[in-house]
Amino acid sequence: MEISKVNSFIKLRTLLSVDGLGIMKILKLVDIFGSIDNLFIIDTSSPTSNDKNSSKLIQKLELARQKYKTAFSIYENEIEQVENIGAKIITFWDNEYPQHLKNIYYPPLILYVLGDITENDSQSISIVGTRTATDYGKSLVTKFTASLVKQNISIVSGLARGIDSIAHKTAIKNNGRTLAIIGSGLDVIYPPENKKLFHDIIEQGAIISEFPLGTKPDAQNFPKRNRIIAGISLGTLVIETRNNGGAMQTAKHALDQNKEVFAIPGNLTSEQSNGTNSLIQRNGAKLVTDPDDILVELQLKLKPEIGINIPKPKLDLSLFEEKILNLLDNTPKQIDKIASESSLSISDSLINLLSLEFKGVVQQLPGKMFRKI
User: Fold this and answer.
1) What domains can you pick out in the chain, each with its CATH number?
2) SS3 string of the chain?
3) What is the pLDDT of residue 48?
4) Distance CA 22, CA 102 (A)
5) 192, 165 Cβ separation under 8 angstroms
6) Strands 178-181 and 124-129: what pairing?
7) Mean pLDDT across the stretch 352-373?
8) Is the pTM of this model over 0.85?
9) What mean pLDDT do residues 334-349 have?
10) Burial (Cβ within 10 Å: 0-12, 13-18, ≥19) of residue 245
11) Strands 154-157 and 286-287
């Protein structure tokens, strides 16, 4: 780690250790003063403003400056421990920091990463759900994940039992990329039975945490983790969750972040589907029944240069429209021939062709010629 980055990281860790200097306040201060380093050279000895809040803020910065001198060796040792396990530290102001995450409210200022976050990972979908998945849920997470990774979309989840683990495993099995956001330090694997999966993910993606090494997977960490799962991706797919499940928290974070939320409907008698059905009923999530539904919804946000094949929206065609469309290809065909082959009158054929033209699948050419687009 470069010396300048070491110094900035240690100053950032010091600021975060001061009560009352939270993420949003630090971001505001850096926006005003230009950098983390500048916050440590503010002249705190000069007379402060009469404004009580400004005075308190100056006092907190002075406290951070004092703590920095004594905490330097502690955080320098933390950097060494992170590097010893092959991990890296990314701060909010580094180029490697995920852009989608940077745009959310309350973004983590520090990410500890095992593996690599690539440019392709900006095209990602989060898949979350219950730890106690039914056979229905297991089959659907496998289907959706396999289909999405084949379109070069990275899969984000939380390494938990159930839906999360299946999403990660399916992405890896299909040679896709996957990111796991965890609620503990990088040196604490939870759940412990996911040790092999943990290391497999590093090979085809990254393990990401905002928590320092040694942090245990305490309950209060997971709501914080969930906002990152939602924030780092383009949208969140919920597959089976109870009304009070953690996946519902992730969906709420996604909605708050103005991200897309998708849900697969489930059995009305299954407790594991209460949450997904509720999200759909309250218009908190878009109902999806096929992976193409997600691709169509996100087509304006997906980058075509990475090779994603965006399917055309499914058309609601009448029997006669479908019959005529099946007679067409890229070669223009005259209306008389279309009418003859479809066994429809010329007027009926024209009406259906006009409808197909409005739906964007047929083009009319001079001389009453038509072709499929």
Assistant:
1) 3-84 (no CATH), 112-306 (3.40.50.450), 319-372 (1.10.10.10)
2) CCHHHHHHHHHHHHHHCCCCCCHHHHHHHHHHHCCCHHHHCCCCCCCCCCCHHHHHHHHHHHHHHHHHHHHHHHHHHHHHHHHHCCCEEEECCCCCCCHHHHCCCCCCCEEEEEECCCHHHHCEEEEEECCCCCHHHHHHHHHHHHHHHCCCCEEEECCCCCHHHHHHHHHHHCCCCEEEECCCCCCCCCCHHHHHHHHHHHHCEEEEECCCCCCCCCCCHHHHHHHHHHHCCCEEEEECCCCCCHHHHHHHHHHHCCCEEEECCCCCCCHHHHHHHHHHHCCCCEECCCHHHHHHHCCCCCCHHHCCCCCCCCCCCCHHHHHHHCCCCCCCEEHHHHHHHHCCCHHHHHHHHHHHHHCCCEEEECCCEEEEC
3) 45
4) 16
5) no
6) unpaired
7) 86
8) no
9) 91
10) buried
11) unpaired
Which residue type, as a one-letter code, is found at position 83?
Answer: E
- Kindly indicate the confidence band of residue 47, based on its pLDDT and cuts at 50, 70 and 90: very low
- Please enumerate, as own/partner, the contacts of 302-305 that have beta carbons within 8 Å and a separation of 24 or more: 302/123, 302/153, 302/234, 303/122, 303/123
Q: Are 313 and 296 in contact (CB under 8 A)?
A: yes
CA distance 310 to 304: 8
Separation between Cα atoms, residue 232 and residue 172, nearest integer Å: 19
Tens of pLDDT, residue by residue over 7-30, are: 899 999 999 999 988 999 999 889
In whole angstroms, give the CA distance from residue 256 to residue 261.
11
> Which two structure tokens, joined as six digits, stand for 94?
């580094």
pLDDT in tens, 288-328: 999 999 998 888 677 654 556 656 666 778 888 889 999 99
What amino acid occupies position 168?
Answer: H
Specify whether the CB–CB gap between 50 and 10 falls below 8 A: no
